[in-house]
Amino acid sequence: MTVNTAAAPQVAPTTDHFGARLARAVADRGPLCVGVDPHPGLLDAWGLTRDVAGVERFARTVVEALADRVAVLKPQSAFFEQYGSRGVAVLEHVIADARAAGALVLNDVKRGDIGSTVEAYAAAYLDPASPLCGDAMTASPYLGFGSLAPLIDTAVANGNGVFVLGLTSNPEGPQVQHAVAADGRTVAQTVLDSVAAANAGCVPEADGAPYGPVGVVVGATVGETGHDLSRVGGPFLAPGLGAQGAGAEDLRAVFGDARRAVLPSVSREVLRAGPKHSALRSAASRAADDFAAVLA
């Protein structure tokens, strides 16, 4: 297969509020975010080669099957970056093609830095002038929440969003996230409170957005953590579902009354149904229905 390295088509920039776009997408297509994760094991399962051609075929299949029907697609940047410039070229096309088909794109990049470096990350993933710009990105707050200001400012200016790591589903997370700060709050609670402050005043009523542009990543496997999720004012991204062990009912236990702002995220649970388009669509539809029943 010849990898298409031509420039990705540009998607017209939007100033529509991210919260409003996300709410409409979920209302129209159901509460589901599907990862675009060309993991080596999935490439093997699909009978594809572990190279950039296999990654392109995998990613394009997912976009062709799902971008016109799921609310959000979430490409995991690392699986593209490992193949260098040609892998990033594939990612550019994934972003553009998915958005052109109507899906919101959440770039799973987990960036976090300071000064001019984080400004460059903001330009790369949140400024419509960049071919890597999606609708939102994931970010790490562990150089201090204030270090993310350029990301949040750029997102707000362009109608995009940022999902900040809060209570993650990996087993190593609590070592940092549950540590207690000098004021008696856990590190995770300081992140949640900072997100709430960032969202305050960011939701113009005329936009009809139910929440602000800054969301939080809270794993569906974390259980009842004792953290206050009620005042965040933004959407929650909930990974850890399906292959990582959590099910739809866990969303009720983790998020309680805040669950209506939850965007469930699955990857392998849907992707392992491929490579047939019909099988991918059926798996995504079942997942969206299961989550909708719990989150209503």
TrEMBL record:
<dbReference type="InterPro" id="IPR011060">
    <property type="entry name" value="RibuloseP-bd_barrel"/>
</dbReference>
<feature type="domain" description="Orotidine 5'-phosphate decarboxylase">
    <location>
        <begin position="31"/>
        <end position="283"/>
    </location>
</feature>
<dbReference type="InterPro" id="IPR018089">
    <property type="entry name" value="OMPdecase_AS"/>
</dbReference>
<dbReference type="GO" id="GO:0006207">
    <property type="term" value="P:'de novo' pyrimidine nucleobase biosynthetic process"/>
</dbReference>
<dbReference type="Pfam" id="PF00215">
    <property type="entry name" value="OMPdecase"/>
</dbReference>
<dbReference type="InterPro" id="IPR013785">
    <property type="entry name" value="Aldolase_TIM"/>
</dbReference>
<feature type="active site" description="Proton donor">
    <location>
        <position position="110"/>
    </location>
</feature>
<dbReference type="InterPro" id="IPR011995">
    <property type="entry name" value="OMPdecase_type-2"/>
</dbReference>
<comment type="pathway">
    <text>Pyrimidine metabolism; UMP biosynthesis via de novo pathway; UMP from orotate: step 2/2.</text>
</comment>
<dbReference type="InterPro" id="IPR001754">
    <property type="entry name" value="OMPdeCOase_dom"/>
</dbReference>
<dbReference type="GO" id="GO:0044205">
    <property type="term" value="P:'de novo' UMP biosynthetic process"/>
</dbReference>
<keyword id="KW-0665">Pyrimidine biosynthesis</keyword>
<keyword id="KW-0210">Decarboxylase</keyword>
<keyword id="KW-0456">Lyase</keyword>
<comment type="similarity">
    <text>Belongs to the OMP decarboxylase family. Type 2 subfamily.</text>
</comment>
<dbReference type="GO" id="GO:0004590">
    <property type="term" value="F:orotidine-5'-phosphate decarboxylase activity"/>
</dbReference>
<protein>
    <recommendedName>
        <fullName>Orotidine 5'-phosphate decarboxylase</fullName>
        <ecNumber>4.1.1.23</ecNumber>
    </recommendedName>
</protein>
